[in-house]
Amino acid sequence: MHRYQVTIHEGHLDTFGHVNNAKYLELYEQARWDLITNNGYGLDQIKTLKIGPVVLELDLTFKREITNREVITIESEPQKIEHPLIMEIKQRMLKADGSLASQITLKIGLMDLEKRKLIAPTVEWMKAIEC
Q1: Domain range enclosing 55
Q2: Tens digit of pLDDT for each residue in 38-78?
């Protein structure tokens, strides 16, 4: 399981003083970029290979509010390939006390950026999402 830690700051907040719903998606994406970049499949690799991940579907749930200056941990874990071209990743956002603040399940694919179509996961991609 990959863990990514971040401190919430004012730019993440909405007028209610807690993390804005759209910011959750950004934070989850940052954690996924951290995972694949640390495993050698960052933006430079994507540009070179012209193959990159795309989000096809997501299910996002909010459990507890997150407020300014909280330190959170995002856990990311690939699940399974349910179709030759589609896989699932689960992520959870944990507060400092370990309580669940949010969770998301994503269906993702690997896209050939020139042909604009999904392709089967490559060896490099499978290595990139290993935790």
Answers
A1: 2-125
A2: 999 999 999 999 999 999 999 999 999 999 999 999 999 99
39 in Cβ contact with 101 (< 8 Å): no
Is 131 part of any domain?
Answer: no
Structural domain contains residue 130: no
Report the alpha-carbon angle 58-112-114, nearest 5. 125
Q: Are 104 and 76 in contact (CB under 8 A)?
A: no
* Structural domain total, the chain: 1
Phi first, then psi: give them for residue 126, nearest 5 degrees. -60, -35
DSSP state of 67: B
Q: What CATH number does residue 27 fall under?
A: 3.10.129.10
pTM over 0.90: yes
Residue 83 predicted with pLDDT over 90: no
Q: What are phi and psi of 107, to 5 degrees?
A: -105, 125
Residues paired with 27 in a beta bridge: none
46 and 36 Cβ atoms separated by less than 8 Å: no
